[in-house]
Amino acid sequence: MRNVTFHKEKAVALITRALQAYQDRTHLFSRVHVDDASAPQHMHRPEGLALDSREYHLFLFFTTLLTYRSRSDVWFRQSVELYNLHPEFYSETVLTIERARIERALQLVGFIHPTDGSKRWYGTAGTLFSSHFEGDPLNFFSHPSVDSFLRQKEALKKQNGGIERLPGIAHKIYSLMAILFEEIGAIPSLPHGAIPVDLHLSRIMIAHGAVTGSGIVDAQRVAEFLRKPIADICEEQDISLFDAAHALWFIGSQLCKRCSQLAGIEMLCPLVAACEGSPNTQMRQAKGKWDLDAPRNRKGKRSPQQSFPGFWKSDHYLDLANIKK
């Protein structure tokens, strides 16, 4: 990628360091961990849906479809609210419903991009419930790799006169879907290269010098640039993509986002020693681009008493005394 360089040795170091803390449950992982149901897909599920049911698979598919440019924990909660109000949206019945109705419902539950979200929902549903996938989300994961799926997606687009048949599903969303379906045992293994490189993972790579460059660069291109080498590292090091994705996501979403406003960051973050400071995400959020020349945020700031309430799963203040270093 022009103006951007990947440094494998630094990426290996930070991934293995994060994974070690995740496995040993030190630093922030003594308080948040996928095994403790701290991830959004565990905290927010419709009551009464068995994990191995087609109904839950459809819920997970449509919910994951819209996990973009928003907090996944917020959207998973909103999606449960939407399911309780309109379970028909998560079935073939959605094809008989006007897109505007979906848009209004998304707006009602608080989803921040209701127009775009309804277009993705309606457009993808038409393909999901067609002969290509027969209404079963698991049929998306018969491919050996993410690249193989993306080739099928492009072929469907060409067959449809250049109109997107699976709006919203690219490497990140497809990888995230695969990881969530593999977690519940719905698919036997992950397609090669299935790691969801999002804002959090990209930010960590930039902050630790695993990605360097200059100027303004497209965030989506950076994410795709990172996906393959990160997946290759995990394969070479015999690292679970599921564990790596969750370890880095927890660090990015819980710490990097507010690092400059947290005291005792060295007790929370296993990567802080090698961190060069989190890159500013303002342009990333507003325009989908990274400014690699922008000044970095400093690491740590306030006293523990000034840290944010609700930092973990409850409304308690951050308790540094209970964090294992």
Task: Please give a structural write-up.
- The chain has 325 residues and is mainly alpha-helical.
- It has 2 domains: 4-37 and 195-322, no CATH class; 52-183, Hypothetical protein, domain 2 (Endonuclease III, domain 1, Orthogonal Bundle).
- 46% of the residues lie in helices and 4% in strands.
- The chain contains 13 helices and 4 strands.
- The chain has a two-stranded antiparallel ribbon.
- Helix 1 (8-24) crosses helix 10, helix 1 crosses helix 11 and helix 5 crosses helix 6.
- The protein is globular, with a radius of gyration of 20 Å.
Name the descriptors.
325 residues, mainly alpha, Endonuclease III, domain 1, 2 domains, two-stranded antiparallel ribbon, 4 strands, 4% strand, disordered C terminus
Strand order of the largest sheet: 1-2
Cα gyration radius (Å) = 20 Å
Mean pLDDT: 90
Question: What number of structural domains do the residues give?
Answer: 2
Helix content: 40-55%
How many strand elements? 4
Number of helices: 13
- Poorly predicted ranges (pLDDT <50, ≥5 residues)? 304-323
CA-to-CA gap between the ends? Answer: 37 Å
Describe the main β-sheet briefly: 2 strands, antiparallel
Order of helices and strands: EHHHHHHHHHEEHHHHE
